[in-house]
């Protein structure tokens, strides 16, 4: 691992995990990449995967309508909490909002429809042993009992690599999921230094003492970078995410021939 990157990561307080893979050369760098972490909103990538698997199988329809009820609404991230009760949205609206605005109301509706057991079974079928949906968002009783949604940097990296190579559900589904992730509106971490000049398909996550950002950076040689943390100094780790992503990009001094993948 580049000494500067290792130095930055080693200085982060609390729990920090990092996974990098160059999707052309297949070079990998890891720093506590298999350390289980409370997932926060990064769990929305496994949820999205299950949604697209069921869409692909014909078990769901992206045009299905939902009427947002007062009891559906959750605080914090998203838009639906602020819309009028009775608003009609489609399934496609829900999974899009879940990613690009990290909408919590949309997320819980999707978890309820597609099922925790189904999401977790799919993660196991993909070879992921840590990534697990254990509860709905804002389920205080489950949280008090210690049931938390879990991820680790490397497993989310595996999902993203499969997506890039067109092998997460299908080529078509992978392309669509990447398109949604590229439209992410929460861009203060991995994309920070690029000012919109580099395409990044990514998902953030935040909570008390928690900050994550995981994604595919479409550099001359595209790469996966997954940053996860718990019990950390959030501003310090977010600065590390910004700076390390830029360092990883700057390590590529020459454009390499394009390889098969989703651009």
Write up what this structure looks like.
The protein has 263 residues and is α+β, with helices and mostly antiparallel strands. The chain has nine helices and nine strands. It has helices at 3-10, 44-56, 91-100, 104-114, 116-125, 140-144, 153-164, 171-182, 234-250, and strands spanning 15-22, 28-31, 37-38, 65-67, 88-90, 150-151, 200-207, 210-217, 223-230. The chain has a five-stranded antiparallel sheet, with helices on both faces. A two-stranded antiparallel ribbon has the order 3-6. Strands 4-5 form a two-stranded antiparallel sheet. Helix 2 crosses helix 4 and helix 2 (44-56) crosses helix 5 (116-125). 44% of the residues are buried. The model is unreliable at 254-263 (pLDDT under 50).
Helices and strands, with pairings:
Layout: H1 3-10, E1 15-22, E2 28-31, E3 37-38, H2 44-56, E4 65-67, E5 88-90, H3 91-100, H4 104-114, H5 116-125, H6 140-144, E6 150-151, H7 153-164, H8 171-182, E7 200-207, E8 210-217, E9 223-230, H9 234-250
Antiparallel strand pairs: 1-2, 1-9, 3-6, 4-5, 7-8, 8-9
